[in-house]
Amino acid sequence: MFVAGIWAGTINTVVGSGTLVTFPVLLAVGYSPITANATNSLGLVSGSASGAIGYRAELGGQGRRLIRFGIAVAAGGAIGAGLVFALPASTFQMVVPVFIGLALVLVIFQPRLSRRVAARRHPHADPDGSRWTILAVFLTGIYGGYFGAAQGVVQLAIFGLALDENMQRINGLKNVLTALVNFVAAVVFVFVAHIAWGAVALLAVGATIGGQVGARIGRRLPPNALRGLIVVVGLAAIVKLVM
């Protein structure tokens, strides 16, 4: 559990999809899907926060974005956590691969699409994203609160298209928002689901270490390498979910 936490914290900070490591481990040791999902959300909060601290230099000047997008993902995360108890457990097996696949297409074509968007962007457009961007972030919050696998990949794709920023600053923004989604979902789960607190402790310590490791790795990757890693991780996530 501890080792899985380190790996998840590392990969979540660099790209996302750490849940696809820790969730199967929690199931393998005997926890029910809902307990595993709730425990996983709470256990990985510290890893995302650790990664965000590691990216604090890239967060400079993004305070307004953090507030407006933070409110959106927090609201979405609460709704998504509630859907865990309203929808059948098999639903995510159909939804998650589609979201990840769409995100990967956006990531692959993001440079070309970004140039086209920039060419058509109004000179007085909000540099912190449009209302459509906030809506898209809200929807990723719902998805992240519900299950969370590859929510970082989806956010990277959205921000890559909507914001005139480099990938490293976008990645820093993503780390803060995923930490917030996991925290909000975890708060909901604490009141309505069973939490395996021993597993939470092991995951949290490992993920905190992994968050720092991931920040050191991710901040040194050039944009194309980071984009390539996103695609590789996303494809692996799809394969694991559909098999």
Sequence-ordered SSE layout with sheet pairings:
Blueprint: H1 2-14, H2 19-28, H3 33-43, H4 45-54, H5 63-83, H6 91-108, H7 110-120, H8 131-146, H9 151-162, H10 167-192, H11 197-218, H12 223-242
Helix pairs in contact: 1-2, 1-4, 1-11, 2-3, 3-10, 3-11, 4-10, 4-11, 5-8, 5-10, 6-9, 6-12, 7-9, 8-9, 8-10, 9-10
Counting DSSP E segments of at least 2 residues, the number of strands comes to 0
Can you summarize the main beta sheet? none
Structural class, judged by helices and strands? Answer: mainly alpha
**Total discrete domains:** 1
Q: How widely separated are the two ends?
A: 23 Å
Helices, by number, come to 12
Tell me the overall shape.
globular
Radius of gyration: 17 Å
Mean pLDDT: 83
H/E series, N to C?
HHHHHHHHHHHH
Query: How helical, in percent, are the residues?
Result: over 70%
- Indicate the low-confidence ranges by residue numbers: none
Multimeric state: single chain
